[in-house]
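Folding Query — how this chain folds
Tokens — whole-number codes for backbone shape
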Amino acid sequence: MAARPRATKASAASTASSCYFAGLVGGEPDRAGRRPRGSRVAMGSSWSSEEERQPLLGPGLGPRPGAAWRSREAAAAAAAVLPAAAPGPGRVYGRRWLVLLLFSLLAFAQGLVWNTWGPIQNSARQAYGFSSWDIALLVLWGPIGFLPCFAFMWLMDKRGLRITVLLTSFLMVLGTGLRCIPVSDLTLKRRLIHTGQMLNGLAGPTVMNAAPFLSMTWFSADERATATAIASMLSYLGGACAFLVGPLVVPAPNGTSPLLAAESSRAQIKDRIETVLYAEFGAVCLIFSATLAYFPPRPPLPPSVAAASQRLSYRQSFCRLLSNLRFLMIALAYAIPLGVFAGWSGVLDLILTPVHVSQVDAGWIGFWSIVGGCVVGIAMARFADFIRGMLKLILLLLFTGATLSSTWFTLTCLNSVTHLPLTTVTLYTSCILLGIFLNSSVPIFFELFVETVYPVPEGFTCGVVTFLSNMFMGVLLFFLTFYHTELSWFNWCLPGSCLLSLLLVLCFRESYDRLYLDVVVSV
């Protein structure tokens, strides 16, 4: 399907106002000021049948998720109350920050549990007898968990955030609990650990995809990018803390670490690893208890016009995404480099071991690269909230830096050929810059996805792109299980994917349909 042309200001105002009132009440008023009592006219109605269209938010604007449409009398009453209760763009509530905090903590814990084993892969080999294939598979459970991605996104769109978040946190409780079961049989212990990582991987679709849905549901138009950045970046920050916690708590089994290297034994390493596992289990249980106590599915009134608008059905959304060339371009620009970088980060210790980087140093490199990306990502998102319509320019700048820094790192690791200085400073600088440029692009991409294909549901859109990203990550880690003796090919995948993404973003024509709706109607 060809991309929709940009609307002029006059046509945008007309379209936005029409969609807004039609989505709330059921049609435009006639000359006498009466509203029709016929079928509702929803945004994107040409893409779906009447029974397929469902509202994003229920109270006052339509049914609760999964319920039938309200009667015409109830809809008319809601329309009469809404303008007086929430004039202009809508209303925001202070509790939105608590909801964002709980979701962000859940995302943080999921990232922490997923990246438990990569930073301490040398210690895990000695404690539990893991092979290189086991280490790669423990990381691979993350993308494997995205196979039922669309089931979780359907649950979120139909049943709301609360049910989806509770199910996600419960899976994490089961997964982290299985890893803590004390058994002496190492074969059984390895199976329990793999099962726990798989259950934690099943929580990935929610924590990675729900950020735009949460920001749309709870936050106004001038806060959405910031909320999306915080909710999506905390999962990466959890993975970064694994680089810090694991190597500092768990001693290295060999001479790669000067600290405790001589006196480290298998029993000591195993005890330290179990300490980390119990601590992660306790943190996940606390987060599950908090979400069970308080995590509302939606605010009483929507925060913006776009939040109150209806979305396309899943069937029509899928057809629209596949036929939208602009979306496919930007989806590949996100999925390929972010998938490669996620797989590369998960086995960073394995990659840096041949260049004589210790387990602790590899952990610090991974930690600061992701932390820097989180900080810059939130700052970029806040900038995007103030200066609207600049998402493409921001991505061009970020991927230019990512291409240069990844090329620098790859050539530095080949110092025997390039004769570039291989020092701790150069490795730290190149890796941290790479992490900053790539990780900070995630929330910018998410906002651009939603703007490009609106009114496709936010969860569905982000589910498609994160599924693609994890598919690329899974393919790379699958090859890693067979070609793990020499990893220079993995390093070259980084600059190649960043350069490809830069070209795709350069050729992409941006549009801001959702932003036009919010800005024009609220004026």
Observations:
- The first strand starts at residue 54 and ends at 55.
